[in-house]
Design a protein that fits this description.
This protein has about 140 residues and is an alpha+beta fold. It folds into 2 domains: about 60 residues, no CATH class; about 55 residues, no CATH class. The chain has 4 helices and 3 strands. The chain has a 3-stranded antiparallel β-sheet with strand order 1-2-3, covered by helices on one side. A hairpin with a 2-residue loop joins β2 and β3. α2 packs antiparallel against α3. The radius of gyration is 22 Å and the shape is elongated. Bound molecules: zinc ion. Zinc ion binds next to α4.
C-alpha cells in the first residue's frame, strides 16, 4: 500500500484545503474593515490598520493554533530520512539502508536527539502500527 498517494484525489484534497485556508483568511476581513472604517478618522489609516491587525492577531493566534493542531489543512505529506549502513533498531540486522519517518501531520520527530532507523520491513511494520494507533495526527 502506498502511504503517499500523489494522485488525483490528493490534488483535489489540496485544492479543497487551499479553499478552506483562503476562507479562514477572509474571517479577518470584518475586523479589518470595522477598525479601518471607525478608527481611520482619529488614528489615520496606518494606525487603524495596525490596531486591526493587533486585534486580529489576538483572536486568530488561538484560531490558527486550533487549526494547526486539529485539522490537516496544512498537511503536506510525510517526510522520511534514509541513511546508509545502519543496524535496525527493531530486529538488529545490519542493512545497507535504514529508514525513519520524522514528520507526518502532527507527528514531528525532526529534532529527535537519538533518531532510530529501521530496515525496510521493520520501518513498514512500525509505520502500520503507528498509523493504526493514530500517532500521525489528523489526516484526510
Ligand atoms: Zn529490522
Amino acid at each position: 500500500m502506498d502511504p503517499t498517494p500523489y494522485g488525483h484525489d490528493r490534488k483535489a484534497a489540496m485544492i479543497r484545503k487551499y479553499a478552506l485556508y483562503l476562507l479562514r483568511w477572509q474571517l479577518s476581513t470584518p475586523i479589518l474593515a470595522v477598525c479601518v472604517y471607525y478608527l481611520t478618522r482619529s488614528l489615520g489609516v496606518m494606525w487603524a490598520t495596525i490596531a486591526a491587525n493587533l486585534i486580529g492577531g489576538l483572536i486568530f493566534f488561538w484560531v490558527d493554533r486550533w487549526i494547526f493542531r486539529n485539522t490537516s489543512i496544512l498537511y503536506t505529506g510525510e517526510l522520511w530520512e534514509a541513511v546508509d549502513h545502519v543496524t535496525c533498531a527493531d530486529c538488529g540486522r545490519k542493512v545497507d539502508r535504514g529508514y525513519r519517518l520524522f514528520k507526518a501531520g502532527t507527528y514531528d520527530k525532526s529534532h529527535d536527539k537519538t533518531p532510530q532507523f529501521r530496515c525496510h520491513e521493520c520501518s513498514r511494520a512500525k509505520y502500520e502500527r503507528d498509523k493504526a494507533a493514530r500517532r500521525f495526527g489528523p489526516q484526510t
